[in-house]
Amino acid sequence: MNSQDAPNQETDATTDRLALMARAHQAVGELSPILTPLAAAFTEQGHSLYLVGGSVRDAFLGTLGNDLDFTTSAPPEITRAILDDYAEVVWDTGIAFGTLSAEKHGQQIEITTFRSDVYDGTSRNPEVTFGDTLDGDLIRRDFRVNAMAVEIAGDGALSFHDPVGGLEDLLHRRLDTPAAPEQSFNDDPLRMLRAARFVSQLGFTVADRVVTAMTEMSGQISRITAERVQVELDKLMLGTHPEEGIDLMVDTGIAEVIFPEIPAMQMTQDEHMQHKDVYRHSLQVMRQSIDQETEPDLVLRWAALLHDCGKPDTRDFSEDGRVSFHQHEVVGAKLVRRRMRKLKYSKQMVNDVSQLVFLHMRFHGFGEGQWTDSAVRRYVADAGELLPRLHKLVRADCTTRNKRKAQRLQATYDHLEERITDIAAREDLARVRPDLDGNEIMEILNIPAGPQVGKAWGFLKELRLERGPLERDDAIAELKAWWEGEKDE
User: Fold this and answer.
1) Which interval of the chain is the signal sequence (predicted)?
2) End-to-end CA distance of the chain
3) What does pTM read for this prediction?
4) What are the tens digits of pLDDT across the range 378-433?
């Protein structure tokens, strides 16, 4: 190193710190019309109020939003009385945990009494103990970048508190724990998953000792409920860099515990390299799906990540060494449904993601020969409201480095979309329904409501997909002819 490098680097670091401090001071200062009266109310009661945690971190990063987290020396009953006088709406977020929330001029405010919790090492639920110092409250937090505070005085003055070096970690875009990571993760294993989430959201790296602890303690994540895991996974997936958060989960073994289908895609390639690295390909497809978004799309991102998760179970080699993954989309859809149900995802989410996985290979039949109008209708009907997402997924699934092949695939899909547009201009493709409804079927066939009506409706739906819209008289004639055949059986 040049003898002049160290002083220059220190000067640059000092400049960066000052810039971060100025940014945070401005961000918090802009909220003084809301925060100063609140701080003054606490001061009048002999207590202090501190902006804390992710709110301080985000103020430094220039991303402070409308959710503000505070801690205070005041006990919950005093906080409640202050908020009742101060805010339009107040609610009990968890008063047993010392937490109350309020809304003031569009700002969500959450205030928690100083905590000094004790964990039992079995669940992630602490024995709540109220503390008496700010530093004691801060050092129990998950990461040092979340263990900073800004005291807001009753006159609007601001003072910065950083007992564990959070600003230094922020400056280096690094995640590290206030205490030993083994202790932190034993107290609350969810913090390991939060590390992956923050990597995705913030683009931070993780300290080596934290990665080591996550790897050694990955099995502890099983202490966390499926619901809490799901929430963290979705926040990770909606981050700016979800592939980096997923990589951290896979590398440390956490993914093997909570979503084993993801690391399973790291299949050992055969000696002839007959298939891509499925895991890396899937991350690239997710990235290319994200690049097509106008706003974060959780369904699309999950489908892109998992579209090939059926390949490990379907890989097969022919006698000449060729590799195939026959019906991997069918197997993959089943795996997605099973795993997402275990993680307590909504029925709609499970159905949407698994259906996209199931349909993502359908397009490739279009390239093998000219699809009939009927095939195009079925493609649209099977996708339903997922069709815009399916378009993006299929286009993102092209990761070949062969430019001619990539251009050919994109041109082929362009052609399919043109066919869809052309048919949609002539027919109501958005709602491919039979030409006769249930009431008309019952009247025409003189049958009561029941399974036979559903069967007739299904016949007309297939007829609609195959031939397109029919004139009413033609539809009635087809229905009656079908019904005669049904009665003869």
Assistant:
1) none
2) 90
3) 0.83
4) 888 888 899 999 999 999 998 888 888 888 888 888 888 888 888 777 666 555 56
